[in-house]
Amino acid sequence: MTFRVAMAQLDMLVGDIKGNTQKIIDAAELAKKEHQARVIVFPELTLTGYPPEDLLLRPSLEPRIEQALEVILSTVHDIYVVIGYPRRVNGELFNSAGVIYNGCLLGEYAKQKLPNYQVFDDKRYFVEGSDPLVIDMDGVKVGLSICEDIWHPEPIQLAKDAGAELVLNLNASPFHIEKMGEREQLLHKRAVETQLPIVYVNYMGAQDELVYEGGSFVVNGRGQKMIQAPWYESGLFMADFIIHDDLDSPLGRLQVCEGEVAPVLSTEASVYQAMVLGLRDYIEKNRFKGIVLGLSGGIDSALTLAVAVDAIGADRVQAVMMPYTYTSSMSLEDAEEEANLLGVEYSVLPIESMVKAFTDILAPEFEGYPKDTTEENLQARTRGVTLMAISNKKGYMVITTGNKSEMAVGYATLYGDMVGGYSVLKDVFKTLVFKLCRYRNTLGYVIPERVITRPPSAELAPDQKDEDSLPSYDILDQILQMYIEQDLSAEAIIESQQFDRETVYRVLRLVDINEYKRRQAPTGVRITARGFGRDRRYPMTNGWHIGE
User: Fold this and answer.
1) Residue 44 annotated as catalytic
2) For the residues 442-454, what does the mean pLDDT come to?
3) pLDDT digits over 314-360, tens only?
4) What domains can be seen in the chain, in order of their start residue?
């Protein structure tokens, strides 16, 4: 006898409970009629979308969830529906999963382990559950768990002790580099501990800075991966189990049938797709008409433009070159070539007269002061005003082009090149930017070779190069990764890599004093385990001394 489970790897809209309810119903009907599935499993908090954040505090949440469950109960039949939602019981809110079949709510499970680190704030909203839930589905005893539960041995062991032969794990596990491998190692460990097969169903889509890449998969009781759904693809993916009458079978009564295993993505491929998905969902879910960005002829804006086109199509993207006195002919040529290669609307709007107008007006205020970065910042802020005017007029969202290395040390201008609604490269170090450009060109040549190989420059002063103000990006990014992502002290960084002491202290000081800039930066795609956003919350005003 075969027992088929449909993994519903879907993209929901946070807060759209009615719309999400209809998606659940449609998916359940499709799983039943076209795939002959007996069970369909949705991700964590499917009804609200993930993460709902302080929508969970709204008094109207409870009746909306109750109404949604009633609609599903009265509509979907002849298939077991396992969905996640928030549930209030005796005044306490639980992160729950319910099992629905033929108009009945057969049982509810409350998440036992609540993460409260990195981007997770479960303890702000929820109370921990304590009891397992095992439901008989067509003669198979199925236990439930939710996301963080699988990172600990106790919840799945409780399910096994309660008689579970199979565990369904509902997830909303956001992407970061290396996360895919971590999940596989984790499920291998849990399966080997309990000799139970596990179905891991993950969310797919993006919400603000978080990206969920799907990649739902199934391991057998030996921890071997038997089925792997694609990454970055919405849909229903089937897992078949054979039920044996032989209770003494060494593989257990329930055996996973080997199915399709999606290929592993390279780091560059997974990061690039995360960037595309993050931007696409932000644009579409917020109903922007399109995207406008400043195209400088440099590598960051070139990569950002490619992501924008891959996200929403060339016909909805406008690139604007805003040259000034220090803009090289090379930059003008490269920007035009990038725009032509990608087929976007391209405008050249010189800003010299605008900068002169600002400078003339400010001349009395500047009298007696030498030229400094103020004049450079005027150029960047003029460009920011220009892009925002186009945005207001056309309904296009401005996306910024600064990378994580620059944002870390404040190598960006508030109300200038930081102006925008979303940042594709916010969590991408400069050294990775180069790799991503080369990766994108393997899919189709869109970034001129000269853009990748020329020395980076903001072109705000004569013959300016980034490395005039900063260490080489190879060194800078290593220091930043150790300080930002590992929280290592200056002395620990110096000792670990034998970096120059003065350089390390200067970089760390730049990171610390520019927290105020990052707080005002737009949100952007999170691709590391420690992005600038929900992950890292340092005080802007503080007396912490750099050192040990």
Assistant:
1) yes
2) 94
3) 999 999 999 998 888 998 999 999 999 999 999 999 999 999 999 99
4) 2-264 (3.60.110.10), 268-466 (3.40.50.620)
Burial class (CB in 10 A: 0-12, 13-18, 19+), 112: buried
Q: Hey, which residues does 104 pair with through a beta bridge?
A: 101
Written as one letter, the residue type at 514 is: N
Pick the catalytic residue from 23, 32, 147, 459. 147
Catalytic residue among 18, 33, 34, 44: 44
Give binding residues as ranges: 117, 173, 179, 294-301, 377, 401, 406, 517
List own/partner pairs for 307-312 with CB under 8 A and 24 or more apart: 307/272, 307/275, 307/276, 307/279, 307/424, 308/279, 308/399, 308/424, 309/342, 309/343, 309/344, 309/446, 310/276, 311/276, 311/277, 311/279, 311/280, 311/283, 312/279, 312/280, 312/283, 312/284
Give the gyration radius of the chain's Cα atoms.
26
Q: Which of 62, 66, 108, 111 is catalytic?
A: 111
Residue 394 is a catalytic residue: no
Write the DSSP symbol of residue 279: H
Q: Which helix (H) or strand (E) holds 468?
A: helix 466-469
- What does the block give as tokens for 469? 């103000």
Give tens-digit pLDDT for 79-88.
999 999 999 9
Which parts are annotated binding residues for deamido-NAD(+)? 377, 406, 517
Q: Is 437 a catalytic residue?
A: no
How many other β-carbons are positioned within 10 Å of the β-carbon of residue 540?
A: 12
Binding residues for L-glutamine: 117, 173, 179
CB 532 within 8 A of CB 518: yes
End-to-end CA, the chain: 63
Indicate the pTM of the whole model.
0.93
